[in-house]
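Handoff note, outgoing to incoming analyst
You'll be picking up this chain. Sequence as last confirmed:
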Amino acid sequence: MSYQLYWGDLHSHCSISYGEGTVEQALLRAKAQLDFCSITGHAFWPDMPTDRERYGEIIDYHNEGFARLAGNWDRLIEKQAVASRDGEFIAFPSYEWHSLKYGDHNVYARGPKLELRNVVDLPALRELVRDANAIMIPHHIGYAAGYRGIDWKHFEDSQSPFAEIFSLHGCSESEDAPYPMLHDMGPRDWQSTAEAGWVMGHRFGVIASTDHHGGYPGSHGDGRIGVFAESLTRDAIWQAFLDRRVYAVTGDKIDARLTVDDAWIGSTIQSGTTRRLKIAVRGSDKLDRVELLKNDRVTRRFFTGPVADSDARYRLRITWGWGQRDKPVSWNARLKLSDGTITDVETCFSGQAIVAPQGVGGHTDSSDAEDLPHEILERTTRSLAWRSTTTGNRSTRHSTTQAISLGIDAALNSELQIEVNGTKLVYPLEQLLGRGHSTYQRGWLSEAIRVGPLVAAAECGLTAELDDEPESECDRYRLRVFQTNGQCAWLSPIWVDR
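Most recent structure output, in case you need it:
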């Protein structure tokens, strides 16, 4: 079976419960760079703390958000249904069910409708979800059990085909995964990682989604889900969920594929003899390494090979922002390629990094006040125009820059001409090869744009085939991808029973 790759965010919030930005803004922004999404409402917390002296503010905050969602639920369902059209964009209904004991779970329905219902514990939630032909997906699983992280002894894969292992909260894949948990909810605990769940024998795939609370589904760098499906329809995407043909990326749309005896990720197959593994990766920037894991142990690392001098295919990243915090800057930019072709445009747009809004209903950050803070205005085979609004980075660890990644098919003597906010820049492509060039718009401490580096397409992808022998009664194969720019991908496993 041949599948297409689609991109989404199944876990994002807005002011429909507690968060910032409107439902309309969230859906518009999702459509700009995703194929599907879910605007999730905070709904229930059956074992919420009752100690008002210590947690009174938290109790009131959540209860107010839950009440707000209940009053807006029908509107949320309607807005997502109206925004959906097979072949163009799909919005799945969902709500969030918190739990200290069992960990947080989101309930999803194929849609377009979903009934908002509460239960007292996880077994009851699983029964409710089963009766509704829905699924329940645990997220930010890496927090310690009992502290809103997952407790694997309560997990069943019957209604939970995958788990969310990356979001604004951090990465829960393994003990030594990048992106530690930095939220005030606490550190990562190995017993709650995905690897711990697999070691216990659970079979589940992995995804990323933003858990963004600022009305910006698919916010780049905060988590996205890749899905291999037959088509962009509600039924086909839903079937891919059930079949675990899903994987996690931080932001860049890394096309990463692993098959074992032609079985896709998420599959369970039987083979007591030699298995044929095929790997194909096409990144959005230069690859650092691709790791093949068998039973959670890295067995092979793959690297890109030498680049042919005759190769005229490249990827170019253009990044803008910086400057002073809380001072919005409007950008109007246009680029033109003297010769050759712009083969594809990948937007790396993000919203303000909001995982804990200031209040129910929130406020709108000045850089996100527009319905579309960042937008491609025009595109031809040799030109591109866009606009954007940015503020300075919130800290040296919290980026607010925006970017686009271009596929370019051109000779190195071609020129790239860029006009941004009245400043004209000209670069021969050869000058950008492996090198980024920065231009400050108004002197020191002002906003800036970085053009490059230009990277040969051959350095962004690789393919490999190999044979492997059985090791145990069930061998688990999976793939990790790391780009040199820090963007990552984690694929769902393939289980091979002997």
